[in-house]
Amino acid sequence: MAKQKIFYQPDEGFVADIIPFYEDGEFKLFYLHDYRDREKHGEGTPWYLVTTKNFTSYKELGEVIPRGSIDEQDLYIFTGSVFKKDDTYNIFYTGHNPHFDVEGKKVQAIMHAVSHDLVHWTKIKEDTFYSEGIDFELHDWRDPFVFEFKGEYKMAITARTKNTHKTRSGVTILYKSDDLVKWTFDEVIWMPSAYYAHECPDIFKINGKWYLIYSEFTDQCLTRYVVSDSLHGPWKALKNDAFDGRAFYAAKSITNDKNERFLFGWNPTKHEENDKNFWHWGGSLEVHKIDADKDGSLNVSLPTSIENMFKTELEYDKVIIQSKDKLKSFLVKDEVDESYMLTFKFKTDDAYQIGVMLRHSLKEDFAYAYFMDYAKDKLSFDNLPVEAWSFNNFRNVYRNYRFKTNHEHEVKIIVEKDICICYVDNKIALSSRMYQKGGSGLSLFIKHGDVEFKNVQYKKLKKENEV
């Protein structure tokens, strides 16, 4: 079954950690399928598979690695990686069973499965291995990422050292193997003394530099990266070290046959589809394109294939807004479509804050908004106006970014139903959700200053025969 959707989500259940693989012109996207309905589907998470060539149409292949029983190690099949050797595909994954803790057993293990077609998999239970509990904690032993380095197989593992306080104990370690079966400890490659754990490691090289992507296991819930001249470190965090904000997590990357690298993460839902409630684990698939800058920093942008899904319906060559002492807006469109894209460039020589209002209602005095904040060097998402004493709606949905006066910035915003993403200068992205219906208007605004918007284009989805 092929589904055309910008942010893929199955009809029943949700997308959690994506494990990407590319072959024969097609992205094979394994993911942790979160039913989020224990009464109907039971406990645990299997691996599902969808494929796509362009991120605009997805073919569902369903469950490919079933979860184990409540008495087995892999009741929850958590994150791992896909590695092909000769004609055999290997998946190394996390077997997680939270019930084992009270039984005195190890909660997490690294497990192995093989296939010849990526769809039918055989679990090799005898290849399972655990933390020995000497240098590293027993129950945090997960997210194996396998790659080849100098004729040897390496496996990056999320672990926690026993030699420091638990809130700073996260480490990324390497194991090594000659045959993908027997694995032995190699080295600790990164120990930042900053996180309880840094999950879902992804390691690759661009332009001679090594990159380690990880997801920060804190209240921030960010996917970040560090860079090094060597696989062995030292690893350095750059100023722009995150790919997105709070609403994009557990991202991993893969390249296609054009050597273009794409990053696959999930945009979380909120409990009961309410802005004021907590973020769930899992949601909908999001894809960013990754490029390396001259200074080694990684930029994210909207994949061209997704951008090409839209066609311009409404355009303004130039919009000038001036307001020295209050917020002032310009209505771009009073009735937007369920899915649309807004693109524009802007420049100011004096501004406190510039932004875009989504689901804008003049009658209700309500909108969601992306704020480009010159005073605070920040891109953020929130309600406008912000509700009094509201502390939980969109906390941590922001990116630090320097907006420069007398400099032209470029913005692309994409919306599908309750999901939105804002890209700035093809460098940073900020994703969110918006559940309150509000209005249907789309507006540009400025607070305290003047701004010139150029090439303002409202775009709607092309029909299927136009794509």
Automatic annotation (TrEMBL):
Keyword annotations from UniProtKB, A to Z: Glycosidase, Hydrolase
Domain Glycosyl hydrolase family 32 N-terminal residue range list: 9-283
Residue ranges annotated for the Glycosyl hydrolase family 32 C-terminal domain, each copy included: 336-459
GO annotation, biological process: carbohydrate metabolic process
EC code(s) of this entry: 3.2.1.26
Matching Pfam families: Glyco_hydro_32C, Glyco_hydro_32N
Domain of life, per lineage: Bacteria
GO molecular function per UniProt: beta-fructofuranosidase activity
Family in the record: Belongs to the glycosyl hydrolase 32 family.
Protein name: beta-fructofuranosidase
